[in-house]
Amino acid sequence: MSYLKKKYREPIVVVDTDKMPNDEWLEYRRKGIGGSDAGIVMNTSPWATPLGLYHDKIGTKPLTKEDEGKNFIFAYGHFVEPFVAEYFYNNFDEKYKAWLEEKIGERIDHIKVYRDANLYRHPKHEFMQVNLDFRIDIITCDGSFLRGVFECKTTSQFNADKWQGEDYPINYGWQCHHAMAVIDADFSILACVAGNTEGFYFVKFIKRDKAREEILIKEEEKFWERVINRDPPTTENMDVSDTGAALIEDLKKYVNAATEDRKELSNEDSKPFKRYFELKDKMKELKKEIEVEEGIIREKLGESQSAVLELDDYIYSVNARTSTRRSLDTARLRKERPDIVDAYNRVSTSNTVKITRRVNKKK
């Protein structure tokens, strides 16, 4: 592709978020759809679903506490962002210049990678906003200027297979398309570190795609109309192949069993029930198969307590040590010392769903 000296459409600067308190920043995020929200709207994020995002945007108070482990992951990712960007810039000439020249079809004179703390809004689609990690500017040898988004990611080595070759998680792709649409960028660089060695630093190039952009904008517009009209997204017929765990968490966080009245459902509501028990039966069979394979592996250990196997791109390790677990006999404690039980009780609230199946004797 060839780039000319184009005139860029500038986004609206909403606010400078540098050193902004987190609570205030979250309030600004609720006023529109951000870059990391794009993959959620498209139902491709492992972290949240459209239902959870909807409740976050309208300010619904969660019924359960946020997972502290998830908060740590997000905080760590934000902390490492400068390293991810600096590594690319510091190694650009040696490792990435020829690669990027091939991607853009132009010879590069120099680049600039820099942090931009502004929160931007799309001038036409005001529900679209973005807080960038970094930006990247390219000056080609013929004097052309290219505007880019530089998105920084971190993950564990267990997820490195999702970044091999030209692959990258699809939710991050939607995030880049969203950001390019808001600031009118030509391309995105998606960089991810998945470990503490160079072999686990991945860089992807995403060209702006107006067709995909239109699809995204239409879906985001429909989602934002739901937010305005207080019309929560339905989970019926939702593809949960990548978001099943997130859906369960969002249902626990935001869907409350508010009344004890029993609701009578119709045959039209039967699909998730049938699918639920199909999966439960399949899970039982898979559990049996897993136990068989585990037994074979244990047999191969012999008298050893651990083993290691290097195979293709993975290293498998086995530990079969006997461990002791101590637990409190609360029933006995309540019987023998009821006076102290309540003092040590920890009260927590959970939102659970129990689904059962029995033979219909009327049939």
Summarize the structure.
With 363 residues, the protein is α+β, with helices and mostly antiparallel strands. The protein contains 11 helices and 10 strands. Strand 9 and strand 10 form a beta hairpin.
Could you explain how this protein is built, in words?
This protein has 363 residues and is α+β, with helices and mostly antiparallel strands. The protein has a domain at 12-229: Lambda Exonuclease, Chain A (Alpha-Beta Complex), CATH 3.90.320.10. 40% of the residues lie in helices and 17% in strands. Strands 2-5-6-7-8 form a five-stranded mixed β-sheet, with helices on both faces. It has a three-stranded antiparallel β-sheet with strand order 1-3-4, covered by helices on one side. Strands 9-10 form a two-stranded antiparallel sheet. Strand 3 and strand 4 form a beta hairpin. The protein starts with 11 loop residues before the first strand and ends in a 22-residue tail after the last helix.
The fraction of residues assigned to DSSP E strands is 15-25%
Order of helices and strands: EHHHHHEEEEEHEEHHHEEHH
Strand order of the largest sheet: 2-5-6-7-8
The radius of gyration over CA amounts to 26 Å
CATH first level of the domain at 12-229: Alpha Beta
Name the overall outline.
globular
Tell me which CATH architecture of the domain at 12-229 applies here.
Alpha-Beta Complex
pLDDT < 50 runs, ≥5 residues: none
* Number of distinct beta strands: 10
Named CATH topology of the domain at 12-229: Lambda Exonuclease, Chain A
Helix- and strand-based class? alpha+beta
Report the end-to-end length measured between terminal Cα atoms. Answer: 67 Å
Largest sheet: 5 strands, mixed
**Count of helix runs:** 11
Q: Give the helix proportion (percent range).
A: 40-55%
Mean pLDDT across the residues is: 85
